[in-house]
């Protein structure tokens, strides 16, 4: 079986021949490519993109691709004394990026928020043999890699470092809270628009809003968490629990809506 990377979204699937389509692109949250599907093998992906990283001297290393492939999610290496955690994934990891991860202690736990951000998790599993933890309701999307620890509502990877199912964007959508660092890895629960606006969505490409029940579950999942920095699958910003709950309150105050609102309380 050969791994194939969809150039429209960045999702990998393993197949015995070039796939006819991509399950992420044909899902209701996404849009298929107008010029048809195109796929890259690992060798072709290596020729078309390079891996960049920032923060190698800090406890959170962010890895990305340039040029990006598909929607271009980031991967995050969390350096922890009880074993490193890697959350979400870039579309491809170059040999030098894999060498960097090795030099920083490798990976003990590998997890992701949802299928849009799986990226090349299969590469990291193949290289570092981590414990792969994926929320049980999203296992049908994990054909490119195998899951050793399917979890239900939450899973503590180390003291104060906890995976929490939020549902919503995907049934198994998961966030990662690092209590000691007051940091939340929010996946696609929220989206930043610059540094002053924030939104939430069921399907961004098709402008599908969240239902009220989904927003309430989001709020319940984070209401007791303390954080001042949020990393999404694509970027990061100073953001508190109160900032996100304010967005959810506005969502619940009327009909579901798609689009950003001010992140901070308006004066």
Name the descriptors:
single chain, about 270 residues, alpha+beta, Metallo-beta-lactamase, Chain A, seven-stranded mixed beta sheet, six-stranded mixed beta sheet, 19 strands
Describe this structure in words.
This protein is of the alpha+beta class and 267 residues long. The chain has helices at residues 42-48, 95-103, 121-128, 212-222, 241-252; strands spanning 2-6, 12-15, 39-40, 50-54, 60-66, 75-78, 85-87, 109-111, 131-135, 149-151, 154-158, 161-165, 174-178, 183-187, 191-193, 197-199, 229-232, 236-238, 261-262. The protein has one domain (2-262): Ribonuclease Z/Hydroxyacylglutathione hydrolase-like (Metallo-beta-lactamase, Chain A), CATH 3.60.15. Strands 4-5-6-7-8-9-10 form a 7-stranded mixed beta sheet. A hairpin with a 6-residue loop joins β6 (75-78) and β7. 43% of the residues are buried. The model has no long low-confidence stretch (mean pLDDT 97).
Topology:
Blueprint: E1 2-6, E2 12-15, E3 39-40, H1 42-48, E4 50-54, E5 60-66, E6 75-78, E7 85-87, H2 95-103, E8 109-111, H3 121-128, E9 131-135, E10 149-151, E11 154-158, E12 161-165, E13 174-178, E14 183-187, E15 191-193, E16 197-199, H4 212-222, E17 229-232, E18 236-238, H5 241-252, E19 261-262
Parallel strand pairs: 7-8, 8-9, 9-10, 14-17
Antiparallel strand pairs: 1-2, 1-3, 4-5, 5-6, 6-7, 11-12, 12-13, 13-14, 15-16, 16-19, 17-18
